[in-house]
Amino acid sequence: MNKLVAEFIGTGVLVLFGCGSVVFGGEAIGQVGFALAFGLAIVAMAYGIGPISGCHINPAVSLGAFLDNRMSANEMVQYWVAQFAGALVGALIILAIAGSNASGLGVNGWGEGYGGGYSLISALIFEIVFTAIFVVVILGSTGEKSSPGFAGLAIGLTLVAIHLVGIKITGVSVNPARSFGPALLVGGNALAQLWLFIVAPLVGGAIGGLLYRAKILKV
């Protein structure tokens, strides 16, 4: 239960910091500010709840860990429930604070009128490839021969870099739960496009996990 509570809180904090920076920071902090908010949230939670749950706070990461035999299928599903619930509560807190000033809640998307107007195919490729990279970094930096004291920093900085590349493409999901909370509350096109931000990160997470399961990335 402690693990699930940690995952619930951690995912909520990720949404609060990351999506909150979009809602409350806006143009004042810009793309670099958004990237830092998401990345620093991961660093904080990695050291805060990492010793309890491993700080997945991302269904794609849990899938990668399952495929690398680091957790059971039952445990993975329980993590998923906690992560989606935490993301929804995080988005609800932002909405409660912002009220009528809330604008989009940091939802992900693609196409005309969103970010740089990138296509569905561009969004799909970005989310799969960069989620795979993210999961590879996470599994590698928390593996048996890693330096675990630096894992949180490596993971957080990787997420910063991913956001610097991809904010104009999709707003950057690489995390189905992070996309779920805001999209569920905003509805409309954000909810209609949510499927991509569930499917693509899970595919990317599976690729990362399978690379480790097949020992392609293991010494």
From TrEMBL:
Membrane topology: Multi-pass membrane protein
Compartments, record wording: Cell membrane
Keyword terms: Cell membrane, Membrane, Transmembrane, Transmembrane helix, Transport
Single annotated GO MF: water channel activity
Gene Ontology CC annotations of this record: plasma membrane
Spans through the membrane: 35-67, 79-98, 118-139, 151-174, 194-212
Main location: membrane
UniProt cross-references to InterPro entries, sorted A to Z: Aquaporin-like, Aquaporin_transptr, MIP, MIP_CS
Presence of the UniProt keyword Transmembrane in the record: yes
Protein family: Belongs to the MIP/aquaporin (TC 1.A.8) family.
Protein name: Porin
Natural source organism: Devosia epidermidihirudinis
